[in-house]
Amino acid sequence: MTQYEPNMVLSEKEYKVVGTRPVRHDGADKVTGRARYSADSHPTGFLHGKILRSPHAHARIISIDASKALAYPGVKAVVTSSDLPEVSAEIADLEEGAAVNYGFYSRNVLAREKALYKGHAVAAVAAVSQHVAEEAIDLIDVEYEVLRPVLTAEEALAGNAPVLHDRLLTQSSALFRVGGWGEEDNVPANNLALKIVSQEGNVEQAFSESDVVVERKFRTSPVHQGYIEPQATTAFWNKDGKLTVWCSTQQLFAFRDHISAILDIPLGDVTVVPLEIGGGFGGKGQGGVYLEPVAAVLSKKSGAAVKITMTRAEVFIGTGPTSGTSIEVKMSANSDGKLTGVKARLVFEAGAFPGSPVGGGSRTMLGPYIIPNAYVEGLDVVTNVQKSSAYRAPGSPAAAFAVETVVDEIAEKVGMDPVDFRLLNAAKEGSRQPANGPVYRKIGLIETLEAAKNHPHYSASKQGANVGRGIASGAWFNGSGPASAVANGSADGSVSVVEGSPDIGGSRAAMAMQVADILGLNSEDIKPSIGDTDSIGYSSGAGGSGVTFKTGTACVEAALDIKNQMIERAAKIWDVIPEEVEYADAILRHKSDPELNFAFSDLAAMLNGTGGPIVGRATVNPAGVGNAFAVHIVDVDVDKETGKVDILRFTSIQDVGKAIHPSYVEGQMQGGAVQGIGWALNEEYVFDEEGDMTNATFLDYRMPVSLDLPMIDTVLVEVGNPGHHFGLRGVGEACLVPPMAAIANAIHDAVGIRMTELPMSPVRVSKALGNY
Fold first, then answer.
1. Neighbouring residues of 59: CB distance < 8 A, sequence distance ≥ 6
2. pLDDT in tens, 369-397
3. Relative orientation angle of helices 252-263 and 102-109, to the nearest 10 degrees
4. Scanning 69, 212, 477, 564, which has the fewest C-beta atoms within 10 Å of its C-beta?
5. Calpha distance 125→136 (Å, rounded)
6. Interval 151-179 mean pLDDT
C-alpha cells in the first residue's frame, strides 16, 4: 500500500470548469450499449462484403478470373484493382510536402501489379449474406508468379535483395517522405525509399575528446496498436452519384479526401459519417483507409449499400502495425556528466509501401537533451510485410528505447544518479533540439524530472533479490492543424457544440468543458456532438496529440463569439454601447447601473424576440502547440531461472500543460504505460520465412491483461502552454515513449544485463542471463 495520495495533479492555475472531473457526456450511451460503432450500421437491403487476400508475401499478379464467383447464387458484385482508377505513384506528380502518395495508397487498398505482403487485398465480393461472401471469394482464381520476399530491412538492403517496386526512387528530403516512382528505365533497383540526415557540430571530435563513450545497437519488432474494435465500414453509392460512408475513423475529412482521390470523384460527392471508435491509437487515422473504397465500388456495381467488417485475423494481416526497427546509437559524455556528442542511425521498416515514421523518431529521440554535437541518419526501407501505420508518437518509442538505454549506461559509468544526469543535460526553454532542430518555447521537462526525483516511488526501498528500478524520459512534439466548431445558444440556456474531430479519448467532454468555462456555465449545460463532413467545416481530426489543442481552440473561439454576441444583444436591449456591458460567471451587467443585468439563461430565452438566434463560429489553424515530455519510473522483478519479468510498480509523470479533465488525462497516461509494458515484454509480429504472420489472434499476440499489471500511478505536472487559452498540451502520445527503456533499465538494475531487443520476452531475458 502506498503511504501517499496517488494520481497527483501539480497545478499552476485553477478554473471554474477546466481542471474538474464531470461525468462524460456520452457515458450513458456507451455503458447502456446505445452508442453506434462502425459495425452497427444496417441499412435496408445492405449486402455483405468480403475481401480476398494474397496467400503470398511477394508475387506478381498475372491474372484474376472472377467468373465463378459472379455466377455463384447470392453474389451481386466483384471488384479488383481494375475497377479502381489507376492513380499515379510517380514522384513527379506529387506536391512538395504531400502527406499521401495516392498511387501507393490505392495499391494498398487493392493490389495492382503485385501482392506485396501476405494479407494484401486482391479482390472483393458483395453478397446477400456473410456466408455466401466467404464461399464466393474462394471461387476467385488468381494466377501468381511467386517471388522471394524480404521481411526485414537488413534483407531488403542486401545487394542481391528482390526489389518490391521496380522504379522506387530514394528520396533525401522529408518533404517527399511518402516516396514515389521515377521514370522508366532510369531508376536503380533498390528498396530504400528515404534517407534523411540532420546534424550539427563535430561528433567525431566530440567522441575523441570525451571521457565516456557508449555504443550499442538495438532491434524492435512490429507491434499492433491493439484496438478492440476491428475495422468496419458501410458504403452506399446512390444513383445520383453521391457516396455516403459510415465508418470508424480518427480523421473523417482525411478519409473523405482519400476516398475522393482513390476513386477519382469530386470531394463534394463524398460524405463521411463518423461513428464511435472502439480504439484507434493512430491505426484509424491518416493511413487507415483499407475498406472504404472497396465497399464503395461494390455498392456502385451492386446498387445496394455494402458493409465490410474485418475479422481479428484480418486486422492483424490486413492493416498496419508500427515499424520494425534497427537503431544504432553512439553517445559520449565527460566525467562531470555533460553530454558532448551523439551519432544515431535509424533504419525503419515501412512495410510494402514507403512511409515509416522514421522522421518522427529522428526528430524526437534526442528531444529531452542538450547535446552540442549530433548526427542523426534515418532510413525508410520497404519490406514484404504490412504497410506500417501510425501508433501513438509514431517512431518515438523505438528511438527512445535506444537513446534512453544508452543514457542510463552513461550515467552509470560516470557515477551519477540517472535523474540527476538527465537534469544536468535537460532541454529547457530557449535550447535547440539536437541535430539542428527547432528552438523550444516554454516546456516543462525540468519540472517533470524534479517531480520524478521527489516522488515517493523513486526513493522507496526495493524489496527482493532480483528487483530493479528504472527510469526513462521521452519527448513528443505534439500536433496542430485546421479545426472548426459551431456553438448554438438554446432558449433554455444550454449550448450545443458541433465539431469535426472524432472523440477518441474523451474529447467531447474536453470541448464542452472549454466552452463552459469561457461562458461561465456548467459542463452539463453544453451538448457536444461530432458532425459529418457535410455539416461542419474542415477539421484535421484526432491525431498527433493535437485534437484537444486545435479543436479546443476552435471551441474556445466559438464560445468567445457567443459571449461577444450576447454582450452586443444585451447592449441593444438596454440601448447602450457594448463597451458598457461586462460578462462574468454567466451574468451580463451594465458596468455603472447594477439594476441592468441578465443571467445567461434569461437572455438566451429572449434571443428570438430581440434579433434572432446567436450562433458562435470558429475556424482555426493554431500555432503555439506545446511540446510534451514524460518521465516514467518502474520497478520489476526478474525470475533468473525463467527470464520472466513482472512489473511491480509503475509511475507515469508528464507535463500536461493544463489538464482539462484530469481523469481522462490520467487515463491516457495509464493507457500509454500499459501499451508500453506490452511492447516491452510480450508484443511482436512473428513471421515465418514465407512472410506469414503466425500469431494473428489475441490468444497468440500477447497483450497485457489486468493480472499482468500493477495500478499505474500518475503525476500531472502542469506547466502552462502559452499557445493555448487554458495552457493545455497534448497528452496522448508522450506517455508511450518512455516505458520500454524504463523497463530495460530496471532489468539492468535488477540483474545486471542490458537488453537491446524488443520484446524482452522470457526467452530473450533468459538467454541474456546465460541460461542457454
1. 114, 115, 144, 145, 146, 147
2. 999 999 999 999 999 999 999 999 999 99
3. 90
4. 564
5. 7
6. 94
pLDDT for the residue numbered 1: 42
User: pTM score, two decimals?
Assistant: 0.97
N-terminal to C-terminal alpha carbon distance within the chain: 38
Residue 162 is given by DSSP the state: P
Report how far residue 655's alpha carbon sits from residue 443's, in angstroms, rounded to the nearest whole number.
8
Beta-carbon contacts of 234 under 8 Å, excluding residues fewer than 6 positions away, are: 38, 41, 43, 46, 245, 246, 247, 295, 305, 306, 307, 308
Helix (H) / strand (E) element for 420: namely helix 418-424
**Distance between CA atoms of 437 and 360, rounded to whole angstroms?**
12
Does a cis peptide bond (omega within 30 degrees of 0) precede residue 622? no
Contact by Cβ (8 Å): 410, 333 = yes
d(CA 230, CA 319): 10
| 2 pLDDT above the threshold of 80 | no
Going by C-beta distance under 8 Å and a sequence separation of 6 or more, which residues neighbour residue 33?
none
Size of the chain, expressed as the number of residues it contains: 772
CA angle 109, 110, 113 (to 5 degrees): 130
CA distance 413 to 210: 13
Measured CA distances, 398 to 449, 643, 759, 764 (Å): 21, 22, 11, 17
Task: With both helix axes pointing from N to C terminus, report the angle between 292-302 and 252-263 in degrees, rounded to the nearest 10.
Answer: 50
CA-based R_g, the chain, Å = 27
Strand order, beta sheet including 597-599: 581-584, 587-590, 597-599
Residue 3 confidence (pLDDT) = 60
* 660-669: average pLDDT: 97
Mean pLDDT calculated for residue range 314-336: 98
Percentage of residues of the chain with pLDDT beyond 70: 99
- Please give the average per-residue pLDDT across 161-190, as a whole number: 90
pLDDT of residue 132: 98
Mean pLDDT computed over every residue of the chain: 96
